Amino acid sequence: MKPDNPLLKILACPLDKGPLILDETGGALYNPRLHRRYPIIDGIPQLLPSSGEPVVEPAVEQEQDALPAGLPDSA
Questions:
Q1: Residue pair 54/36 in contact by the 8 Å Cβ criterion
Q2: The whole model's pTM is what?
Q3: What was the pLDDT predicted at 2?
Q4: Taking CA 46 as the corner, what is the angle to CA 24 and CA 41, rounded to the nearest 5 degrees?
Q5: Among candidate residues 37, 10, 17, the one with its CA nearest the CA of residue 26
Q6: Taking Cα atoms as reference points, which of 3, 26, 6, 16 lies closest to residue 47?
Q7: Burial of 61 per CB tally in 10 Å (0-12, 13-18, 19+)
Q8: Long-range pairs, 51-57, Cβ under 8 A, ≥24
Q9: Cα distance from N-terminal residue to C-terminal residue, the chain
Q10: Rounded to an integer, what distance in angstroms lies between the CA atom of residue 57 and that of residue 73?
Q11: What is d(CA 46, CA 38) in angstroms, rounded to the nearest whole number?
């Protein structure tokens, strides 16, 4: 699937019904709100809820690790 494909404007995530983003390789559609990736197989987006894969974003993990030590708990 190419970035200029008009189909991209109407495709939506099956879980939150929001817009999807074509990833840089063109092999999947990505939902940044739920951090889920839906594969594109033989040019057909697989948009079943069960076909979505969770995506772990390393930048989020690094931000959590960068918090200063010794901060009081919010309990």
A1: yes
A2: 0.69
A3: 80
A4: 65
A5: 37
A6: 16
A7: exposed
A8: 52/13, 52/14, 52/15, 55/30
A9: 48
A10: 25
A11: 6
Residue 58, SS3?
helix
C-alpha–C-alpha distance, residues 27 and 46, integer Å: 11
Token output for 70: 């010794």
- DSSP H helical ranges for 1-75: 58-65
Residue with tokens 């074509």: 22
Judge whether 21 and 36 are in contact, CB under 8 Å.
no
Separation of alpha carbons 73 and 26, rounded Å: 43
Tens-of-pLDDT digits for all 75 residues of the chain? Answer: 787 788 888 999 999 999 999 987 869 999 999 999 999 999 899 999 999 999 987 654 445 555 555 555 555
The answer to whether the beta carbons of residues 26 and 17 sit under 8 Å apart is no
